[in-house]
Design brief:
Largest sheet: 5 strands, mixed, barrel
Order of helices and strands: HEEEEE
Number of helices: 1
Mean pLDDT: 82
Radius of gyration: 21 Å
Strand order of the largest sheet: 1-2-3-5-4
């Protein structure tokens, strides 16, 4: 049977090819939790987005998404999430991955 692939060899080859892909976390529709400080809330239209509300957050590292703290704008699911928020407020927030963006889907004000 020399020259013909053995079933065990084929199985090991398939496992070697599939295992790295299976080890990658699913990204589509994934969501993450973060904490940070509100720097700005921008209802639409703004310089950053014509039709979506935007929140600028100085956030801590977000496990599984961003290893470092940074300041960045995020699109928000609704301007209603901004109700009662002011620059300087410390928040916990949830992000959901949508096509081409990270969308803030919930915000909770934390005590200072």
């Amino acid at each position: 049977m020399r020259g013909q692939p053995r079933p065990l060899s084929i199985l090991l080859l398939v496992i070697a090819l599939v295992a790295p892909a299976a080890a990658q976390p699913a990204r589509s529709g994934a969501d993450w939790r973060g904490t940070g400080v509100v720097l700005a809330v921008l209802p639409p239209p703004s310089d950053l987005h014509a039709i979506r509300p935007v929140i600028v957050i100085r956030h801590e590292a977000i496990p599984g998404l961003m290893a470092e703290a940074m300041t960045m704008p995020f699109l928000a699911a609704s301007a209603a999430l901004f109700q009662g928020l002011r620059p300087g407020d410390r928040i916990a927030f949830r992000l959901k991955e949508v096509p081409d963006a990270l969308l803030v889907i919930s915000i909770e004000r934390l005590s200072p």
